């Protein structure tokens, strides 16, 4: 059963584990809020992405991406949100009082963000066109495709939140906090600009 799904699982792993807006945001969330408080963010990404996968698997995603205005709107929304996050990061610090004053991204916001994330659209359209299992009925193929992709996606993105939470332990000195904050701001801003490349 797993052998025919191996190409899909490989694609899901490679596309989910590589850097992108979701993973950079999760690494930041792991650092600022820890792994446990980032769980709703992770679940929101996986469930929202699962819905996007289903939409693209039935062909709607291809139609959406065929409309230039829709592509531009997705890029604007995705890059604007990432630039907003980069701007918010400049004021963050690592003390407990400041941490309690801010909140990690919630489940619903993370789920909705998938529809403004160009990398998620590319993953979903590419996966749906190339790796949809050959099963009948088509609804079963789409369900298996979405479940397998999401089952691979969740552990992959969890690695980024976990890495952030682990790194948080080594950022006790103010100098390294400032250096790391600057790096994360630059990476987030780069992700926003890379959407247009």
Please tell me the overall pLDDT. 82
Main sheet record? none
Radius of gyration: 18 Å
- Binned, the helix content reads over 70%
Membrane topology: Multi-pass membrane protein
Keywords: Cell membrane, Membrane, Transmembrane, Transmembrane helix
Transmembrane segments: 12-35, 42-63, 107-132, 138-167, 179-196
Pfam families: LysE (PF01810)
Describe this protein's structure.
By secondary structure, the chain is mostly helical. The chain has one domain (18-194). 79% of the residues lie in helices and 0% in strands. The longest helix has 31 residues, at 138-168. The chain is globular and about 60 Å long. The model has no long low-confidence stretch (mean pLDDT 82).
Brief digest:
The chain is an all-alpha fold. The protein has helices at residues 6-17, 21-37, 39-57, 60-66, 68-89, 96-101, 107-113, 118-130, 138-168, 174-194.
Which structural traits does this protein have?
LysE family transporter, 10 helices, globular, transmembrane, membrane, mainly alpha, single chain, 197 residues
Task: Write the SSE topology.
Blueprint: H1 6-17, H2 21-37, H3 39-57, H4 60-66, H5 68-89, H6 96-101, H7 107-113, H8 118-130, H9 138-168, H10 174-194
Keywords: Cell membrane, Membrane, Transmembrane, Transmembrane helix
Protein name: LysE family transporter
Main location: membrane
């Amino acid at each position: 059963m797993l052998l025919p799904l191996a190409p899909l699982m490989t694609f899901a792993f490679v596309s989910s584990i590589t850097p992108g807006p979701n993973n950079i945001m999760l690494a930041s969330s792991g650092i600022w809020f820890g792994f446990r408080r980032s769980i709703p963010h992770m679940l929101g990404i996986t469930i929202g992405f699962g819905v996007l996968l289903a939409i693209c698997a039935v062909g709607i995603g291809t139609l959406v991406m065929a409309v230039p205005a829709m592509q531009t709107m997705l890029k604007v929304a995705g890059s604007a949100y990432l630039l907003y996050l980069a701007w918010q990061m400049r004021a963050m610090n690592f003390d407990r009082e400041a941490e309690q004053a801010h909140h990690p991204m919630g489940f619903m916001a993370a789920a909705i963000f998938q529809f403004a994330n160009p990398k998620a659209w590319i993953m979903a359209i590419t996966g749906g066109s190339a790796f949809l299992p050959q099963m009948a009925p088509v609804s079963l193929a789409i369900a298996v495709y979405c479940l397998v992709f999401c089952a691979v996606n969740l552990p992959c993105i969890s690695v980024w939140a976990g890495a952030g939470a682990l790194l948080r332990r080594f950022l006790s000195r103010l100098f390294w906090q400032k250096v790391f904050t600057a790096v994360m701001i630059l990476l987030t801003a780069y992700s926003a600009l890379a959407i247009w490349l």
